[in-house]
Amino acid sequence: MRKLLICKSTDSLEPHGSVPPRIVHWRRDIQEQNGETVWLPCVAHGYPVPSVRWFRQDSSLMTSFANNHRITEQEGMLVIHRATLQDSGKYVCVVNNTKGQEQVHTVLTVRDNLRASITPSHTVVTVGTSLSLRCEVSGSPILYLKWKKNLKPLVLDNRIRQQSNNVLEIANVRLGDEGMYQCFIYNSEESAQGSSTVLIQGSSPCEEPHQNIGLFSPTPRPIMFLAKKVTLIVYQLS
């Protein structure tokens, strides 16, 4: 007589009871190049299986991505197609089930290649006048900007100043200000530079103080000829 043995498992692949959601994988910071596809992961455990939603946070405003065909949610991941510089910012992943909720955030930085140039690229200025050089920049992110002269760091003072709008101002120009000026921009991945050649010319002879030139004769009958800032005195002979 055979006996039939019946085996019954008392364990379940599902947990006994509900478990609050817990986010186990995400990235705090992501950097990607302009125009690329960006993937923001958010993996959560819990029971019942938690739902995952993504939002963009601007100040206190949380914006969802409903009806946005370029930015989509796929199995807990936020996918940004053809990323632009404007996509840089803070993104929030929110997971919840019947037992609770948890959220984390990811900071996305979309980069663009750095470029720099100086306007004007070549200039001639006169001693005693002023000079302005503007560093035109593009790309992102730009962490800081630095000026150099003849490949050496430019020393700033009360006469040579760097304005907040990337403009270098030089007052009361001197002959020693002549040279090649460069502006460098940097971020953690790359740098770029622009350059400008500055030539300094001295004062024109016509800008010298008045001078008197005299030709003397026995008869003191002067005839005066006036030139530009030069007085010529000639005495006529009898």
UniProtKB/TrEMBL annotation:
Gene3D superfamilies for the chain: Immunoglobulins
Record domain Ig-like: where: 21-109, 114-199
Domain of life: Eukaryota
GO annotation, biological process: cell-cell adhesion
Gene Ontology CC, one term: membrane
InterPro entries: Ig-like_dom, Ig-like_dom_sf, Ig-like_fold, Ig_I-set, Ig_sub, Ig_sub2, Ig_V-set
Keywords: Disulfide bond, Immunoglobulin domain, Repeat
Full protein name: Down syndrome cell adhesion molecule-like protein 1
Native organism: Caerostris darwini
Lineage: Eukaryota, Metazoa, Ecdysozoa, Arthropoda, Chelicerata
Gene name tied to this protein: DSCAML1_2
